[in-house]
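[Solved] Which block belongs to which protein?

Original post:
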Amino acid sequence: MLLHRVIDHVKAQNWTAIVLDFVIVVMGVFIGIQVSNWNAARRDVSEARVYIGRIQEDLLANKQDMAMRIAYFSGVREHALAALNARRKPATALDKQFLIDSFIASFSLVRSYQRNTYDELLSAGAMNKIPDVEIRNRIAEYYRVAEGSQYYMNSVPGYEDALRRTMPYEVQAALRFGDCNASFATDETGAIAATAPQDCTLDIAPEQTSAAISKLLATDLEPDLTRALADFDLKIQIFRIWEDRAQAFYDYLEDAK
């Protein structure tokens, strides 16, 4: 319709009408682009809010995960400390509990820090959809530091391998069948929550107990056990720091909404 009108005006050499038609076309294109840009900006802001909300959900999940890890490694640490103290006693004073403590002290828990939303932001190239530069920088810095802490969170002390190579297999099997394993359950977010064993039994003959105790004492496991205890202390400290950091960053994003 507009094209036909322009052609008619050209044929009639109505230059004023031609200029007006040109202005109308330009204004229409300009307004169309502005409306498109405005809609795109609104979509970006909406998507940014969704991403930030999801990052907050990840932060709460991480906070809960850190609390679980603190409880888990605190329990393992108690057994490690008991095993270390027992090694300094006469062999005749030791019993099945020494084997139980030594076994549980070898437990570890390797798991990744929750960062699904952040990884999605990076893979989709959507970080720039968050309009606030400071928020973008804070998000990137938070996960950069978290990635650096993963090494300490997931380190496995050499005591685990040393104990498993030294303790007779029959005793390890009896411990596992006697509920001396960590238990795993799914929490409300679908994440796996681990719990250190609370009550476990060791059903083996007295002579097996004596032989296993003698073998553990004959092997110099104390340096590895000491190193494991130091590792547990460091882990618990790191978990507490990241529990607080997750809550603090959640609060920052909440205030920035």
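(Second protein starts here: sequence line, then its structure tokens.)
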Amino acid sequence: MNWSKIPREEIPWFPTVDKDKCTGCKVCFEFCSHKTYGWDDADNVSVVANPYHCVVGCTGCQSQCPVGAISFPELSVLQTVREKYRDKL
């Protein structure tokens, strides 16, 4: 799917980090080449610092997290965006 014709800020696709589960291993921080993650020194956890740097549809970091602290929206969110912008695609 080519999402380039839709403003990235209109596509709510990015990870969420559960700070209660995050152990501070930095796997997601180091895995994501798009610099979606930042680091919270105070809490020693990854944070989603650049949500719109995340590649639409990508969930690679989620499977890398050893404690399951990363989640993504349901894929139906992308279907909703696709329907909204059907004329542009």
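Accepted answer:
You had them paired correctly. Confirming on the second one: The helical segments are 27-31, 60-64, 76-84.
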